[in-house]
Amino acid sequence: MKRNLLTLVIGAVLIIIFALLLFVFQVRQSETAVITTFGKPAAKPITEPGAYFKWPWPIQKVYKYDQRVQNFEDKYSQSLTTNGVTILTSVYVGWKISDAGTFIQKFPGDPATVSLPNVQSQLESILRSAKSAVIGQHPLSDLVNADPQELKFDAIEKEIEASVQSQLQGKNYGIELEFLGFKKIGLPESVTQTVFQRMTAERQVKINELVYDGEKQATIIKSAADRQAADTLSQASAAATRIQGEGVAEAAKTLPVFQQNPELATFLLSINALQQSLNQRSTLIFDERTPPFNLFQNLPTNSPSQQP
Amino acid sequence: MERNTQKNGMVNLMAAVMVFIAAFVVTVFVNSLAGQGASIFLGLGALVAFASWFQMRLEENERLEKLELDELARAKGESALFDAKESEVFPARRSREQFEKFFVPGFAVLLFLLQAGGAWLLWRWVSKTTGVIVDARAMPSLSLFAIFALLLFLIGRFSVTIARLGDHRLLRPGSSFLLAGAYVCAFTAIGIAGIKTGFPKADFWMARALCVLLGLMAAEMLLTLLLEIYRPRVKGKIARPLYESRVVGLLAQPESLFTTAAQTIDYQFGFNVSDTWFFQLVKKNLLVLLLAQLAVLLLSTCVVFIDAGEQGVLERFGRPVAGGILLPGAHFKLPWPADKAYRYRTEQIQTFDVGYTPDAQSENTKTILWTVAHSREENFLVGSDPVAIQNADADTNDTIKAPPVSLITVSIPVQFQITDVKAWAYNNAAPASLLQDLATRAVVHYLAGADLNDVMSHSRLEAAQELQKQIQTAADGHDLGAKILFVGLQDIHPPVAVAGDYEKVVGAEQTRLAAVLGAQAEAIRTNDLAEAAAFTMTNVADADRQKLEVSKFAEAALFTNQIPAFAAAPSVYKQREYFKTFASATANSRKYILLVTNTQDVVIFDLEDKIRNDLLDVNVPNNSSP
């Protein structure tokens, strides 16, 4: 009997707990909830946190939505700028449910698996349309520019945000846009390759600048050195000539000495010249009249008649 | 009494089939892995309940047949009826024997295959699937599984008691399955509740546990089939149904653990342990122990432990409790589901990366080069020097002109810390993701307005400081409750495809310097050699001059002395000087002296060089011509 009572108590407690789970639901601070009765949403959504009563499924059903700002990033998609450049952009947005009652009618179904994907799909379409339209009114230099004064990055973001916000308000989705920003800006693959080619060409310009500047400077340095060497040598040559001239001038002071006896001086110069001219190996042919070979004159010789 | 048992069997069968179908539908509805295991278990239970109910009917038919035959025998005495073959006289008994002989073993083998196959397939499916429970359907499904558990518990408990009191062995298998099915449904509900209370793997582990249970049941069935072959057949001993699972019985009635063990030993070997004091003690208090365990489980939800480096946010029925920031340590709260605590890593420095996705293989490399991708890198657009671009554009003949931008790769780790846990928890659905978006946007924005060469060189440090400031401002603007601790520009370089060309520029600079230095070295050599030659030249000239002067003065001195000698004997002196000079001058010359004996024959030697004939052909211009 005691055991049966215990079993009944356990059963009763379990029933109470499970009944509570069926009849009571909680709404968190971060949530907003809409109760539907046989599919018809209540007039006023629950926005305050707490525990609330409901009839069990299938009479009433509770749809809970996150009322915090939710983030969404659109696809990395192609757009054409006003100067004809194709770029890829992706933006992130923050959105939140502003009116859960309207939201549940526009996006019915399970919040996680149906509503949220539907919202993101709608946002994706609106975002892509607004983004392409706004980017199409600007040149690429408004988005990317080495001069920050020329950059209109923030203004373009604001234009896209305003365009998306006006479309969301016009369609009354029950959501509002909180913020928007560029997440990625890039170029299609084919354009990227051309940018790479240009960057390579820029580097080649730098390389040539450096290499040929080096050669230029080297040539200038060598040329200057050659010129300086030539100057040095020519000055040295001139100095040498001057020195030689000075020597000649100095030597010329001895000439009056020789003038005292020109005959002797001439004779001495002649034999000096003879000595210098015969300095090298030479063949000399003399006859017997040439002194000192005249000593051979009148020596007995063989007459031609004595020859055989 | 037997008819009541058969009715109980029918109730068991109906309950098992209905709950099986309902559980399967709810499982599909909520997409629960544990629900799939529970459905398989309940399906097996329905099969067992059907087999036991059918066997009950056969035994009931046999009993009625026997009663009828006994009545006839008493009425007619000896009869030819009993001369007939036994199979003709006892068709119901024959049917029951055939059923036990062929169907029951076959059914046991089928059960084994279904249990083993179910365990294997469910294990594989649970390992592969990435499906998650549909959040909005979790609470209704949880409640339905709880109701199934309650329903099965009440019916199963009643049937088990009936079976035990009346010793209805055929009622036991189905009843045990129903009671065990109640616990399995409760486990499934707990798995779903676990997900709702912040344990996302609860359903997965419950499913794994059910796989193990099915595997145990299959192993037990195989063992039973093997033991059945060697079990001694004692006449009059009623056989235990082969399809009855002791594992399920144990699960259904854990308090009968020792009873089951004792029964098993008794059945196989004839030992009796059910009368021991320990068995009796545990058996009496098992329910109390289970209740105590349940109470402890519920009480355990009244305490929350916040780890070091964490803070918790306490909610009561979804509303944040005033001042309910839980610091590290133990905290008391109302039991689940009234109070719930959510933890956040507030002290821990958290990191995310902008511009690259680290991969394990690249992280292990010791050297990081521009020309080798060291992670999955993204290219960012950056401004370029417009003059250089115009020049490059003018040289390009491509139909697709390169846009006036350059590409750059950056690797920027960002470290942050949560400073306001409530702002972090309640202002954005995915604050960490938003912070990463804001940081990426700041980097994209900064680079879009920067010059490639500047940002790669002298603006690098300023860029890190500027980015940290911008990200912090953006985070504060969205009230994220986070503080940016560090933004590091650990890598800024041109994309891998053009990085080699940037390195060549460095090489070209070195080539330029080498050429200049080589020229300087050569210039030094040239100038030094020229100076040396100049010095030599002037020195030689100086020496020559000296020599000339000295020699001329010496000659003059000599001449001054020669004059008196000449004056004394002019002809002799001249002759003497002549011969002296002649002797010394011709000392090394070959000399031919012609002694002429025949003066009439004069031989003339023409020792002049012959004039070249071609010179005679030269036309000399006529100066006399006008």
Q: What is the share of helical residues of chain B? A: 55-70%
Average of per-residue pLDDT values of chain A:
86
Structural class of the secondary structure composition of chain B? alpha+beta
H and E order of chain A:
HEEEEEEEEHHHHEHHHE
Q: Per the principal axes of the C-alpha atoms, what is the gross shape of chain B?
A: elongated
Q: What is Rg of chain A?
A: 58 Å
Number of strands of chain A: 10
What do these coordinates show?
The complex is a heterodimer of chains A (308) and B (626). Chain A is built from eight helices and ten strands. Chain A is an alpha+beta fold and 308 residues long. In chain A, strands 6, 7, 8 and 9 form a four-stranded antiparallel sheet that branches. In chain A, a hairpin with a 2-residue loop joins strand 2 and strand 3 (40-41). The model of chain A has no long low-confidence stretch (mean pLDDT 86). Chain B is 64% helix and 12% strand. Chain B has 19 helices and 13 strands. Chain B has helices at residues 2-30, 33-76, 86-89, 91-128, 135-166, 171-196, 202-230, 246-252, 257-269, 277-300, 360-363, 386-395, 421-426, 431-448, 452-456, 460-477, 496-568, 570-585, 613-616; strands at residues 303-306, 310-316, 319-326, 329-332, 339-345, 350-354, 356-357, 376-377, 379-383, 405-418, 482-487, 491-493, 590-594. Chain B is elongated, with a radius of gyration of 58 Å. Classes of the chains: A alpha+beta (308), B alpha+beta (626). Chains A and B meet through helix 1, strand 1, strand 5, strand 6 and strand 8 of A and helix 5, strand 9, helix 12, strand 10 and helix 14 of B.
